[in-house]
Amino acid sequence: MPPRENGHEEPVIRDNRKIDPETGQVRDTATGQAAQPQEPAAEPQDGEPVAQLAERTADLQRLQAEYTNYRRRVERDRVAVREQAVAGALAELLPVLDDIGRARDHGELTGGFAKVAESLEAAVTKLGLSSFGQKGDPFDPTVHEALMHSYSPEVTEPTAIEVLQPGYRMGERVLRPARVAVAEPEDAPPASDDDDN
To answer: Which of 56, 109, 123, 166 could bond to 104 as cystine, CB 3.0-4.6 Å?
Structure first.
């Protein structure tokens, strides 16, 4: 070590890093010198920036498509939650609408109560509620609930001959099936296993 001016030796600093900080090359551990690269660094080709641009553009388009799909999915879920909430509220009002219908059938829907009933019916109609189920409709088990069954010569197919309680739907969603009395034709052949013989 070379002596300092005041007679003390200067400290020796050894750089034991495996990568030379100036060149970025791996050092030869025996000599401490940067090892020469075995192959020269590849010079960028003219096509490489174009390829990188195309790759990044494709990545950006993929990301944008994912974001668009995410927004659509969130909007679809928001609409579904709203429809479910409205359907739940309307389902709770069905007994009230049944009471209004019975009062109308018995002539008791008069005065101020009639105005309130009309306002309520207009409000639920605006929310998308509609009633269905008429006397004479063909019986459809997806929208009708049969509470009574009989046979009649006046029908040619299973038919709702009486509506005991109207059904309600919101759009295509059935909130409550129509409760009906069903009649079938009298001359319907009995079901038997011997038909195949």
So the answer is: 109
Residue 164: count of CB within 10 angstroms of its CB: 14
Among 127, 151, 169, identify where a domain stops.
127
pTM (predicted TM-score): 0.57
Q: What are phi and psi of 141, to 5 degrees?
A: -65, -15
State the residue range of the domain holding 182.
129-188
Rounded to whole angstroms, how far apart are CA atoms 164 and 133?
9
User: How far is residue 114's CA from residue 100's CA, in Å, rounded to a whole number?
Assistant: 9
- pLDDT tens digits for range 99-137: 998 898 888 888 888 999 999 999 999 999 999 988 889
Report the number of distinct structural domains present in the chain: 2
* Distance of alpha carbon 177 from alpha carbon 140, whole angstroms: 10
Q: pLDDT digit string (tens) for 149-165?
A: 999 888 889 999 999 99
